[in-house]
Write a structure and sequence with these properties.
By secondary structure, this protein is of the alpha/beta class. It contains 15 helices and 13 strands. Belongs to the SorC transcriptional regulatory family.
């Protein structure tokens, strides 16, 4: 197959370009259907004239259908797109990029989904699905999974309804307290959705993510909190996101003194309440109840999920502290940006 691709690229280079373009049109329709031609053209950064020709061709092949509400894939189109997903990963060279990124970041594995979630927010759902599939491969008869909050983890939660969990016992535990922002993005809420979508159970931890040292000492004496912390530390799998430093500081309503510290020390990434500069140095740490950075090496499986070109620096800064066993699920936008300077 690889030799065929090489010969096609040599003799008919435009063929692969056309194939790749039509694949992305089909994939984008699937992600946004029903969708009109104009928003699709903007999404793909393609002129409406060029897109018109492509969608007319795809309609003629009975792969898409036109309706008043917009374009959608036909059942035949969905079937062919599933096959194309595997083929295009080979053509685009994603497997090679995954290996390069794993070596660059010093981690066990990288899974890359095509696209950039900064340009097309629905790519985040594709990251969620890829993360869910990777999790499925790790499941055993009994599983305790500890989970952080965030929009990407929310996408993972929604995607879990598509995996096979027959015969699997699953308990989801929040790795952190509440950070701020939307309730649906909190670890407690995400664990509840994950449990609903898999027929599992979940625990709650109703404490703020950031507490004073005095309050932390008091809360750690509470049996219910201690029981949850014990469950967190005995988990089989960690699922977590990676945040941009300033956005996370704002979500936490960080006090002025800490905010100035984060800014002056050039923090770019955040995970588990730790803020990192571009060299991976910890420049600020939030006093929290929950999973700590030093706990991570004790876990057998760790899956980190984050995407978008804008997250590249944050991902790279955190990965300098991540255990080597980490699996990163990301998108092309972040992956290419990370590798650009290597």
């Amino acid at each position: 197959m690889k030799e065929l691709f090489k010969l096609q690229q040599l003799l008919v280079p435009d063929l692969l370009n056309v194939m790749e373009r039509r694949y992305f049109v089909l994939r984008s329709i699937r992600l946004t259907e029903p969708v009109g031609r104009r928003p699709l053209a903007q999404m793909l950064e393609m002129t409406e004239r060029v897109l018109r020709g492509e969608v007319e061709f795809l309609k003629g092949q009975h792969l898409i259908d036109f309706q008043p509400a917009g374009m959608s894939l036909t059942p035949e189109g969905r079937e062919h797109l599933t096959k194309l997903d595997v083929l295009m990963r080979e053509i685009i060279g994603i497997h090679k990029v995954e290996q390069q990124l794993s070596e660059c970041l010093g981690i066990a594995e990288t899974i890359i989904v095509p696209g950039d979630s900064d340009k097309m927010p629905l790519i985040k759902d594709e990251i969620g699905k890829a993360c869910a599939r990777r999790l499925e491969a790790l499941l055993v008869e009994k599983n305790t999974i500890t989970v952080t909050g965030g929009t990407t983890m929310g996408s993972v939660a929604n995607a879990l309804m598509e995996i096979n969990v027959e015969g699997k016992e699953m308990i989801f535990v929040p790795a952190r307290g509440g950070v701020g922002g939307k309730v649906s993005d909190q670890a407690n809420s995400i664990c509840a959705v994950m449990a609903d979508n898999t027929g599992g159970t979940h625990r709650v931890m109703y404490v703020p993510d950031e507490v004073s040292d005095e309050l932390r000492t008091i809360l750690l004496k509470e049996p219910s909190i201690n029981n949850t912390l014990t469950l967190i530390r005995s988990a089989d799998i960690v699922l977590h996101g990676i945040g941009e430093a300033m956005k996370m500081a704002e979500r936490r309503n960080t006090d002025e003194e800490s905010m100035n510290k984060i800014i002056k020390r050039h923090a770019v990434g955040e995970a588990f309440g730790y803020y990192f500069d571009s060299d991976g140095n910890i420049v600020h740490k939030v006093s929290t109840i929950g999973l700590q950075l030093e706990d991570l090496p004790h876990f057998k499986y760790i899956i980190a999920a984050a995407g978008g070109k804008s997250k590249a620096t944050a991902i790279k800064s955190y990965m300098k502290n991540a255990p080597r066993s980490t699996v990163l699920v990301t998108d092309e936008g972040a992956a290419k940006e990370i590798l650009k300077g290597e």
